[in-house]
Write a structure and sequence with these properties.
It is a single chain. With 368 residues, the chain is an alpha/beta fold. It contains 9 helices and 12 strands. It has 2 domains: 152 residues, 3-Layer(aba) Sandwich (Rossmann fold); 168 residues, HUPs (Rossmann fold, 3-Layer(aba) Sandwich), CATH 3.40.50.620. Strands 3-2-1-4-5-11-10-6-7-9 form a 10-stranded mixed beta sheet, sandwiched between helices. Strands 8-12 form a two-stranded parallel sheet. Helix 1 crosses helix 6 and helix 3 packs parallel to helix 4.
Length: 368
Amino acid sequence: MAGAPFRSAVRPGPGAREAAAPRPRPAGRMAGPGPHEVEASERDVPEGAVLACIERPSEGLVLLQHGQALARALDAPLVLLQVLDPGVALSRPADPLASAVRRREARLALDRLAASGRGAGDAEAPPLALVVEGNPAREICRIAHDRRSRVIVLARHRGPAAAGLLGSTAREVLDHPETSLLLLPPEPVQPFSRGRSPLIAVPLDGSEWAESALPTAAAIARREGAEIRLLHVLEPLRFNGKFPPELCDLALRRQLAERATALAERHLEHVRRMLAAQGVAVSTRILDGDDPRTALLSCFDRDPVDLMVLSARGHSRSQLADLPLGGVASYLAARAAVPLLIVVAEGAGCVASRAPPESPPGSQRLPA
């Protein structure tokens, strides 16, 4: 049990020796890699931490590795969180003893996982391990809100990436995007490939909201020695009407397409220079596609990346303010086969806030 040791209520018989009272546990945590001597509480969770949320024992090590890499890059503390869902029907009373045993076993397993993240000679203390009970998604969102967590790390679950399915916990957390979220695909992947130079993809659409993901991406790139690849998808210009376009319409569409390409190249080059001035290696790529979501997925299939970082909202922020996520972020969250970091920004300020006067247009429609 996680609380005080159980002491029998039966009095010892004549001549029997009374058991020695257990020594009080020292305050704080052990300095070594062993289990914590005192169970952590929510008050121990530091503000601004990276919150790695573990639902299944099999995913613990991968979540720990990604959480550690992200915490180091953002210079933030790491907390391992496991939420035990009671899963008890309302008509059936809970067994407090069984609940305490389950909680203790989960805490010891989480402590062992936290200690395993320390390498030989590592002077850093193991991450804080916290076990709570309740609805997983609600408790994760509540703790992240109360402790102002910087990023939540969570596995997506529910089958292969191509299926486009999200686990219930991931879906509920995404429906309340107050905290940035790193979603890991169902197939285990290492934080960054060591056989080649790490690559971080950042999709941009010309809006300041999309650029709000750049400071986080730059911090990770500097820490991991990774290259940032800026992506922009140019959607085809469409005619709106029942009648086929005339020659002058086709000429106008060609001119606008050339103009959109030039503006996109100019915008990406501006952001590239801003990031290069901060010591980050940057490349740019313009993609063509009817749908930015599928164009980005196809790009990752051809040229795999280690991490994708994007804003929770892009240029649709003003039109779809009632939805929790933009269309691209929501689509990729359910289908990307790479770790996806969705950045929730308080404002539209970004590394390239002084953008050129003209921004690359998105999808455009021409009159018939």
